[in-house]
Design a protein that fits this description.
With 368 residues, this protein is α/β, with parallel strands linked by helices. The chain has helices spanning 20-32, 63-81, 94-102, 115-119, 127-146, 156-159, 206-213, 229-236, 250-258, 271-274, 279-286, 297-301, 316-328, 330-347, 350-365, and strands at 7-11, 36-41, 46-47, 53-56, 85-88, 106-111, 150-153, 165-167, 193-197, 219-223, 242-244, 262-265, 291-294, 308-311. Helix 1 (20-32) packs across helix 15 (350-365).
Length: 368
C-alpha cells in the first residue's frame, strides 16, 4: 500500500471492530475514498479486503476499571500509527482525544449517543448519583471537545450541545440489502416471525418482549449482544416462541430481516431514547417490514407512522395486539413495509451521509 496515503485511525474501547457505524459505514467509506484506515478496538487483529487494518487493544472486563484506564491503554498504540486524523468513538476516550490534540494531531470525536442523557438511566449507577454525574459529565464533555477539530453527531439534538459539528446520521447502507439473497421469500410466504436486531437489555425492552412472546400467534427471533450474562442465559433456555440467534454478521442480519414479517423496537421512554434515531428502525424499513415501536413523539413527527404501529413500551398486551394485527393482516402489513422502504430510499439512505463524512475529512486533511 502507498505510504503517501493519508492515515486515519479510528479508536474504540467499547465497540467491536465490525461495528456498523465505525466499520461498515465510516471506515469503509474512507477506505474506498483512498485513505489508509486503522481501527483500534478490544477484539480483533488483521486486515480486510479493503485494506482496513485492525489492531487489538485489550480492555479490562470491569466496567469502571475500563472507563478509568481505557485512554491510557490505547495511547501508545494510537501514537505509533502516526495518523493524520484520529477519530474517537467513546466518551471515556475523551482524555485520549485531548492528549492527541495537544500533541498536534487532528482529532474528531464521534458522539454516537447523548451521553449526558444516557447517564440518567444507567442501571449500574445508583439512582441518587445519576443526576449529579450527568451534570458534571455535561460540563467536562463540552470543555473537552472545544479543543478538538470537529464533533460528529448522529442527530441535530446532540449537535446543538457542541460548537463545531457535522451531523452524520446513522442511516442504513442500501448496498447491504442488495443481492444478499437472489430471491428472498415474498412477504406473504414468510413464516409468522417477528424479529429484533441490536443490543439486548432491559432498557431496550427485553422483559416486555419475553412477555409479548407468550401472547402472539408467531415467534420472535432476537439477534445481538446481551447486556448481562443473566439475560443471555434466560434467552438460551427459552423454547418455542423465542429464538435467540446470538450476534450475527451483516449478511445474516439482512437475511433474518428478509425472513421476518415484523420488526420490534421497544425502547424505554428515557430522555436519550426519546430523541434517538436507532439504526434498527431504518433497517426494518429498508427491508420492507412494518414496525411495532415505542410511541415517541419525535418518531411520529418524522413520518414513521406510515410503516409503524406505535405502542406503550411498558404494556406487553398492547405490543402483542399490534404484532398480531400485522401477522393476521399480511396485505396491510406488506403495504406498510413498502411505504417504509420508499421513505428510506427517498430520505434516509447513508449515501448522502457518506458524502458529508468525506467532506469533513477533506477539510481536515486538505484532500488526498
Amino acid at each position: 500500500m502507498d505510504n503517501s496515503m493519508k492515515r486515519i485511525c479510528m479508536i474504540t474501547s467499547v465497540h467491536r471492530n465490525d461495528d456498523i457505524r465505525i466499520y461498515h459505514k465510516e471506515a469503509k467509506a474512507l477506505a474506498r475514498a483512498g485513505y489508509r484506515v486503522y481501527i483500534v478496538s478490544p477484539n480483533a487483529c488483521g486486515r480486510d479486503d479493503l485494506g482496513i487494518r485492525f489492531i487489538k487493544s485489550e480492555m479490562p472486563r470491569n466496567r469502571l476499571m475500563r472507563i478509568a484506564t481505557a485512554w491510557h491503554r490505547v495511547l501508545k498504540v494510537a501514537e505509533s500509527i502516526k495518523a493524520d486524523v484520529y477519530h474517537i468513538h467513546d466518551p471515556e476516550l475523551l482524555p485520549l482525544a485531548w492528549i492527541l490534540k495537544k500533541h498536534g494531531a487532528k482529532v474528531i470525536y464521534d458522539a454516537h449517543e447523548d451521553t449526558t442523557k444516557q447517564i440518567l438511566s444507567k442501571p449500574y449507577l445508583p439512582l441518587p448519583m445519576r443526576k449529579p454525574l450527568s451534570i458534571v459529565y455535561n460540563v467536562l464533555e463540552k470543555e473537552a471537545v472545544k479543543a478538538l477539530d470537529v464533533t460528529v453527531c448522529v442527530t441535530q439534538k446532540i449537535a446543538d450541545k457542541f460548537g463545531k459539528t457535522a451531523i452524520i446520521h446513522n442511516y442504513p447502507c442500501l448496498e447491504e440489502f442488495l443481492n444478499v439473497e437472489q430471491s428472498p421469500p415474498e412477504y406473504r410466504n414468510r413464516p409468522r416471525q417477528v424479529c429484533y436486531l441490536g443490543a439486548i437489555s432491559k432498557s431496550r425492552g427485553i422483559e416486555q418482549i419475553l412477555e409479548t412472546s407468550k401472547l402472539i400467534n408467531g415467534r420472535i427471533a432476537l439477534a445481538g449482544a446481551t447486556e448481562t450474562a443473566e439475560i443471555k442465559k434466560t434467552l438460551e433456555i427459552q423454547s418455542g416462541r423465542i429464538r435467540y440467534l446470538g450476534v450475527l454478521d451483516r449478511l445474516d442480519a439482512v437475511r433474518l430481516l428478509n425472513h421476518s414479517r415484523v420488526g420490534l423496537l421497544i425502547l424505554a421512554p428515557t430522555p436519550n431514547y426519546r430523541e434517538s434515531l436507532p439504526i434498527k428502525l431504518f433497517e426494518y424499513m429498508m427491508a420492507g417490514i412494518p414496525v411495532v415501536a415505542s410511541d415517541f413523539e419525535s418518531w411520529r413527527k418524522m413520518g414513521f407512522d406510515v410503516c409503524t404501529l406505535f405502542v406503550n413500551p411498558y404494556h406487553p398486551v398492547a405490543i402483542a395486539e399490534a404484532v398480531n394485527y400485522l401477522l393476521d393482516n399480511p396485505d396491510i402489513a406488506e403495504k406498510m413495509g413498502e411505504a417504509g422502504k420508499r421513505l428510506v430510499l427517498k430520505e434516509f439512505a447513508f449515501k448522502n451521509e457518506e458524502l458529508k463524512l468525506l467532506d469533513v475529512y477533506k477539510e481536515l486533511t486538505g484532500g488526498l
